Amino acid sequence: MTMVEKHVARMMAARAAEELETVQLGARAESLRKEGEESLRSLRDLDQDSDSEADDDASAGFTGCARRDARRRREQNGIDKNENENVFVRAMTSAELGMAYAWMRRDQRRYENAVKFWDTAASSVQAAFEEKEPPGEPSTRVAIDEADELESTSFINTTGSFYQNTSTSRVLGVFSSELGPAPVGFAVLRDDALTVDAMGVRQGLRRCGFGGKLVDALKKRAKAAALISAGPPEYVIDALPSSVSFWKSCGFKSATGSDSPTTKVMRRLCGDVAMQFDLLDEPLEIKGDEWWVAARNKRFGGGV
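RESULT FIELD:
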């Protein structure tokens, strides 16, 4: 074989290996989804009307009943109907991820406007979930652990899992003790352990404040890191055009930096909108050797 032929052969072999790994990840995600679907169906969840509310329990679905009863309890206790108690964010178990896969697939089949997380991202979510090494730099993980521990002191989880740090996994779940064992939402983080790469809330539980709770948790983690220079002073995300209003409601604004040429091309292809939340009240003194400076400069072409 010539040098060129050997090079092409190596490229084709590498591509074949990547494709095989994607298929295998998808198969493992499908296995978890089937187990999660069985678990949820045992609760009368995932049926045709599981998201519907009704006064008659026989005609109301599982998710609809839980949402209705939680709202009634809040009203009886004088709590704002949109305020969710006992909502917490933590790393998911494989069983919980399987339940999330189950409602992702069900939502995209039932709702025309549902994001197709199952079809387009299941293998990527599975890959992030299976990563052996914890994400981010050690200093970042320390800051996240401290933020999680502080948060846990003001929260009593009625399911018995009082505190579990979120620094060990890129796949996090949002849980509500009022709404059963399945996560009501999820987030996949980038390998910096801070930045959200993808997130979503179950379709029947949208506009209930769970997405905002998740973003609040992510901002607290990022601020803890920024305070000790273990993370950038701003939280930057790439928002889908349809989600810009949501991110604005969470305090984000249009990013102030100028995209690098590479970022501009990628943004034009994906249609994303750069948005940011300023984590610190005072400007951060940047020494230049912080781990996040190079990535920040690469993204914004040297300045923010």
